[in-house]
Design brief:
Layout: E1 2-4, E2 11-12, H1 30-33, H2 43-50, E3 73-76, E4 81-86, H3 96-110, E5 116-121, H4 129-137, H5 139-147, H6 149-159
Parallel strand pairs: 4-5
Antiparallel strand pairs: 1-2, 3-4
Helix pairs in contact: 3-4, 3-6
């Protein structure tokens, strides 16, 4: 751990993360603009929802830290499933559960209720991957976490637009 954390708090776990280039905005097609045609949800649409989530430790987005990538988003609109694998910046990242929770909350708030969500750590990228994935998959645990006002405030900060 090196350097002070945000606001001069605890030291940062990854004080100098690699920063990646943001992908371009997706052009809107004529089909998507046509209100008469059904608009299915695809991988890119889900990626666009989560790419700008703020990292809890750095003034960067999850996309800029390469925590989320479009290639690790899988959507089956017909089956109403969304799977997102995310990759913490370091194998012992203590923020992994908070990052996963932020992704899950963003999707819960943005998608129709018919979708079943699977938010998990990219296999082999975190020391506590099994434990974090178990927490993120447990609906009761997620609901209980969101009843914690402090934790909800932190999640909302991750989901808010940076000024």
């Amino acid at each position: 751990m090196v350097g002070p954390g945000p606001g001069g708090g605890a030291p940062l776990e990854n004080a100098n993360p690699l920063i990646y280039r943001r992908s371009g905005e997706r052009p809107v097609t004529a089909r998507e603009e046509d209100d008469e045609l059904p608009d299915s949800i695809d991988d890119r649409e889900i990626f666009d929802l989560i790419r700008s989530i703020n990292d809890p430790e750095h003034p960067l987005t999850l996309e800029e830290l390469n925590v989320v990538e479009q290639v690790r988003v899988k959507v089956d609109d017909a089956e109403s499933t969304v799977a997102v694998a995310f990759t913490p910046t370091i194998p012992h990242c203590s923020m992994a559960t908070l990052i996963g929770l932020s992704i899950k909350v963003k999707l819960i708030r943005s998608l129709p209720e018919r979708f079943k969500l699977d938010v998990h750590i990219t296999p082999g990228t975190h020391a506590s991957e099994h434990a974090v994935n178990k927490q993120l998959a447990d609906k009761e645990r997620v609901a209980a976490a969101l009843e914690n006002s402090h934790l909800l405030e932190v999640v909302n900060q991750c989901l808010s637009a940076r000024s």
